[in-house]
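[#protein-structures] MJ: dropping UTP--glucose-1-phosphate uridylyltransferase here for a structure pass
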Amino acid sequence: MKTVKKAIIPAAGLGTRFLPATKAMPKEMLPIVDKPTIQYIVEEAIESGIEDIIIVTGKGKRSIEDHFDNAYELEQTLLEKEKFELLEKVQEASKMVDIHYIRQKEPKGLGHAVWCARNFIGNEPFAVLLGDDIVQAETPCLKQLINEYDRTHSSVIGVKQVPEDETDRYGIIDPIEQFERSFQVRNFVEKPKKGTAPSNLAIIGRYIFTPEIFLFLDKQEIGAGGEIQLTDAIQKLNQIQRVFAYEFEGQRYDVGDKLGFIETTIEFALQKEELRDDLLKFMSQKLNR
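AK: finished. structure tokens for UTP--glucose-1-phosphate uridylyltransferase:
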């Protein structure tokens, strides 16, 4: 059985929720304290055993490639000024793993972005990680899904419970049977209308796929929002081979909208010893005004 060693990170979206900041900066490069959001995603992939990553980019995303490349002038300046700790942090991103890039030439949706990387994947199982969700867990979120793939030899979709009034924002699973944290699934529903969701288990930006998913992405069928939806392809894959959902352990942070991004930044800042006390003092002063 082939193991999961390749991953796709779609990063071609326009980031309209963060305009005007994302007019010139990709949303994936917006920092959570001192690290761009996409680096958290890449780090999770590496910690999960991924050896090759392809990032699907679009127009105006060159800074992502620059971030994971060497920065000779900056590194030399830091070296000359003996700022070795900062130098190590700067070099860390370029030493992580083999990262490849391909452009999604048209904004046709998540399913299309994954399809763009089909030649890189070939006939292997692979992972997909979305940048809108950061997960902190003792065992990396993606590694949990890989372990489940190793057990089932089937595609595995990461899910998490969400409030009932938010189910219309997500792909939702219709579970049949549950074994511990794993679910056999009847249907995968893309953004059901309020009050119609079959459960509150939402698809949260982490996937393991067998290469057969490309049989359906190849058809380029248009779904909700006039885009090629990954959830639609998952539903069709589930009709020819089992696709499981796995409720992963860990704290999930939604950085795909402004409020979630701000909350995540505060949470991660509080986790840093050098910032925690001053930040708590500042927040207390604001609350007591």
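MJ: nice. The chain is about 35% helix and 25% strand.
AK: one more thing. The chain has two domains: 6-256, 258-289.
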